[in-house]
Amino acid sequence: MKRLSFSTLMLWGGLAFIYLPMLILVIYSFNASKLVTVWGGWSLEWYAGLFDNSQLMAAVGRSLQVAFFTALAAVTLGTLAAFVLTRLPRFRGRTLFGGLVTAPLVMPEVITGLSLLLLFVAMSQLIGWPERGLTTIWIAHTTFCSSYVAIVVSARLRELDLSIEEAAMDLGARPWKVFILITIPMIAPSLVAGGMMSFALSLDDLVLASFVSGPGSTTLPMEIFSAVRLGVKPEINAVASLILLAVSLVTFLIWYLSRRAEENRIQALRQAQEA
């Protein structure tokens, strides 16, 4: 009988440590009992009850809305910052700019949230904008997530072959056209990865949203945190299970499309070599 190696045991132990709590959460979302820790049989009652819980569903909608716009803004700003850091290697203040881009990665969220809160309060007193709510949450999340996108896209830009872009410009293409038609398609996987990471980070954030939110802008993590202090409700397990299902489906779809695109690219290269 073949013995399991230490690395295999550590691998399965790590996977169980990460995914076993999620599996338990999904199982208990079908619990018929109102007590989360007591199993009362299988039931879909709590999934059906989600539509009657207007407060929780409103928080889900706000979180999805903020996460979607955060992903768009973070990918745009992060890509521009990565392009500056990789394609403009020498300019005055480059070290300071690089430090400012990566600072949110190492800055404690409590410090970042407090700093943004003071900034928004000062701006509101001076110019009357912004009022604390979904807009301030979106700005805070974009500031935080842009750093992750910049790091991911920078790594991809450094691996690109510049001769392809130089050849396009030698043939008369303008820089903006080269960037849109050549650079963006080549860094598309990193853009998708950065967008998914930004969406997940925004959807999961509690600390920043707690500092900069206002009346009527409670997000899903804030709603769950408030409810958990009074005891975990079965509806929370149900909504968490639906989010896990949605994220898993989107991740699988992106992986499948990326794999198909890579297979088509390899097939086109082989056909071109044979021709």
From TrEMBL:
GO terms for biological process: transmembrane transport. Gene3D superfamilies: MetI-like. One of its GO terms (cellular component) is plasma membrane. Residues 60-255 form the ABC transmembrane type-1 domain. Keywords: Cell membrane, Membrane, Transmembrane, Transmembrane helix, Transport. Pfam families: BPD_transp_1. This is Putrescine transport system permease protein. It comes from Azomonas agilis. The lineage of its organism: Bacteria, Pseudomonadati, Pseudomonadota, Gammaproteobacteria, Pseudomonadales.
